[in-house]
Specification:
Strand content: 5-15%
Radius of gyration: 23 Å
Number of strands: 4
Number of helices: 10
Order of helices and strands: EEHHHHEHHHEHHH
Low-confidence stretches: 8-12, 151-160
Strand order of the largest sheet: 1-2-4-3
Number of domains: 2
Helix content: 55-70%
Length: 242
Amino acid sequence: MADLRIETAQNIGIDYTIATISDRILATILDGLIMIGYLVFMGLLFSTYTLQITTGLMVILIMFPLFIYHPFFEIMLQGQSPGKKIMNTRVMKADGTEAGIGGYLLRWLLGIIEIQAFTGSIALITIIVSGKGQRLGDMAAGTTVVKLKKEMSLHDTMLTAVEENYKPLFHQVERLSDRDINMIKNIIDRTGRHYDWNTYEKLASELKSVLEQKMDIRSELQPFAFLATVLKDYNHLAGRLN
């Protein structure tokens, strides 16, 4: 699958990898196995214990959780069902924000038709044709399913080892979040790989402006040097606190 390019509010581009068809099929199979396991458990429960309930109520207790399985988990887990979580995929809006309750419900309702009623054939064809990993429910809700990258730890954001006697230039980096630092690392890692040099300079310059506002400073350093220094300062101060 192709990458999905998302522009943040600061006009900084972030690439997400659209989940492959196999990722989505495997997630669906895993969710199906979980639901089958639930049916087996409930069957054993009702066969083992004599419960004074009507057949209608029994059907509701068994089938209703299966009926709301996907919207329930996607709402509770911010776009992930158990199957998607195992496959490390997530539903999100095309602008990078969370789909929201309305989005999850809309794609679920249309999924009843394109997935369940037509055994997934319509969804499969639409995903292939759309080019953005979208089935009809995704198109209506403005969502897609992306492959999540492994979350970066502080160790992962290290650009270079920081010597013990290192003196940070910007103590204001303590105002930044791990997400800010990961974005710096993301841009530095993409140098010469995903963008031409002019695009890279623009991204680095825009991120520098955003970080300067957050840190309430103004630096004469060139964008790349500034980002590298902020990353080193952050790692030094975070390491000292740890």
